[in-house]
Amino acid sequence: MSADAARQADDAAAVIDGVAMVFNAGSAGEVAALTGIDLTIRAGEFVTLIGPSGCGKSTLLRLIGDLLTPTVGTVSVFGKSAHEARMDQDYGMVFQHAGLFDWRRVRANIELPLELRGWSRADRSARSAEMLDLVELDGFGDHYPRQLSGGMQQRVSIARALSFEPRLLLMDEPFGALDEMTREYMQGELLRIWGETDTTVVFVTHSISEAAFLSNRVVVLSPRPGRIHSVIDIDLGERTPDTREDPEFFAMATVIREALRSVGGTE
Amino acid sequence: MALTVVAAVVLLVILWEGYRWMGRQTDNRWPGTGIELPVSTDDIIMPPAADIVGELFSDIRDGRSTLPLSVFLLKKAWFTFQEASIGFFLGSSIGLALAVLMLRWRVAERGLLPWINVSQTVPLIALAPIVVTWGRQQDLPDIVSISLISTYLTFFPVAVSALRGLQSPDAAHVELMRSYAAPWSSTLVKLRLPAARPYLFPAFKIAATLSVVGAIVGEISIGTKTGLGRAILEFAQRYAVWPERLYASVIGAAFLGLAVFGLISLVERLVLRRTGEAAV
To answer: DSSP strand E in A53-152: where?
Structure first.
């Protein structure tokens, strides 16, 4: 490793090195999901993985989160193996479906990861109150998940993921099930929260505008087997609702769209 | 629930008496045909409902005292309830433990599940004497043997349903717990057990009624002096001359079954209210 690369690795949140993933290896149902993935995600960055279905973007996210183990290559997170990072509870995860426990009140859902870390009751309730404030759901702590709308549930899910200040937030199409208006609102909220914490975010989506609006960098994946087609830097400065009507925003979206077209994506 | 029970009883009495009335009019044939009714409506096979209810208030000798049959049956049912309760709690605990074991080790599931299924094909009548003889050899009181027979019926629905319930959480929930590096035990307590509740309570209800059946069969095969099973056995032997009495004791057994069912439903409602399921 050169001195330069070493310095880069120092402030890297995640380094994916020569990773390939094969499901059902050796059997008739063998599927090569990813191949030859090299990617470095810098600390504090907001990186989006985008690509057509079957490009392995969710698989890549799960490899970073140590929910899957790569067939070839290594994933290191904050200078440790992904497994050590998971054991150190460095990850916060948000999935497409809020995945709240419906037998727990909103407050207790947010406190779940804190319970697992052995926080005292007083510390937990102080933190969950803080988190409810952050996602602007004060007054909903004693509700049950099914009493909330989809967007509100997803905000609880984000609050739960952020409650223990994870260093790396992994989000798998978190807004995929929301309507367009709620989605745009949630994107703004996510950027506000991201700005208020030092969390690094890896975000999976198949929405071009979402990728352009949220990210510092967009990683475009091509399918079968999944590989990195290109990495697009997005420099739109601070995002406001007006950013969505900014010609530069459209220009970035166009760059992403062109890249997706060339990999055979439908979106 | 009380209202539904009353309505069901009234409906049953109407059907019973309606059928009897029809049988008398047509000389035990379906109206307008020569086909015989499946059950003849004479007073031995189907005594009048009023006589059966009346029997509940007639006196019966119990040892040296004389008391109404209903009180006599309640006393007997109390014994049976105790045996059934022990059977229920023991059986449910064993069922839950087996489910957790099978959840934890795939090998255990493959090894145990077939045996658990086979266990229920062994007739209780064959099993009971073995348990009883063993119990007497060990100098155990009869209530232990009877409870064990009851346990044998109870553990099965709980084991099978609990396993399904524990395996029921979404993959996303399991992944979430994994991402927190939650140990297996925390995942069990905080995710799998609460997620299993919709599977557990119906199983507990089945187990509760089965525990009563097990206790009654246990009493009959053990020949114990107490319990509903003993009463049913005695009345059955005199059925030909005194049918109302057997029917009355069957009502007592049904009542006990309903009571334990209701008890579990009550617990279910309390648990669900505590976790908000009843809030919406």
So the answer is: 72-77, 80-81, 91-94
